[in-house]
Specification:
By secondary structure, the chain is α/β, with parallel strands linked by helices. Helices cover about 15% and strands about 30% of the residues.
Length: about 150
């Protein structure tokens, strides 16, 4: 999401640099905010990354992208998104990352990408569900099969 993508006309910007809406789905403690921290680091952010659990929105103006990280866990009604300025955040140039998007049902538009995160043993498994417009770009950047195990010596 941070690096160049194949567009059929050479390399274009990473998906994060073109704006979009990404839903982050997973149980409490699955690693949604940790994923956001990694993405922000990949985009060049060097400061702290706070969870928006209580602030509801944290925004980052980076040289490569403007990123808004929302955590909707604590909202009681989807209409509260209007008070957060959701229309301004979804401006077609910003990357908007939303934790607990079901709490915004009926107000949030369909996502460009859903990232499902689940625990597996000592790690996490991520499953990407892109909207049609993002499918070619993600298919060009993500491995389709796991890499083979290293050769035994």
């Amino acid at each position: 999401m941070c690096g160049p993508r194949a567009t059929g006309q050479g390399n274009g910007p990473g998906l994060a640099r073109t704006g979009g809406l990404v839903f982050l789905l997973g149980d409490l403690g699955a690693g949604k905010t940790t994923l956001v921290r990694g993405l922000l680091r990949g985009l060049g952010h060097r400061g702290s990354v706070r969870s928006p659990t209580y602030t509801l929105v944290e925004s980052y103006d980076l040289p490569a992208a403007r990123v808004h990280h929302l955590d909707l866990y604590r909202i009681a009604d989807p209409d509260e998104l209007e008070f957060l300025g959701i229309r301004d955040l979804l401006d077609d140039t910003s990357l908007v990352l939303v934790e607990w998007p079901a709490r915004g049902a009926g107000v949030l538009p369909p996502p460009d990408l859903s990232v499902h995160i689940r625990h597996q043993r000592d790690g996490r498994v991520l499953a990407f569900e892109p909207a049609a417009a993002w499918q070619p770009a993600l298919a060009a950047r993500l491995p389709q099969t796991p890499p083979p195990p290293p050769a035994a010596d």
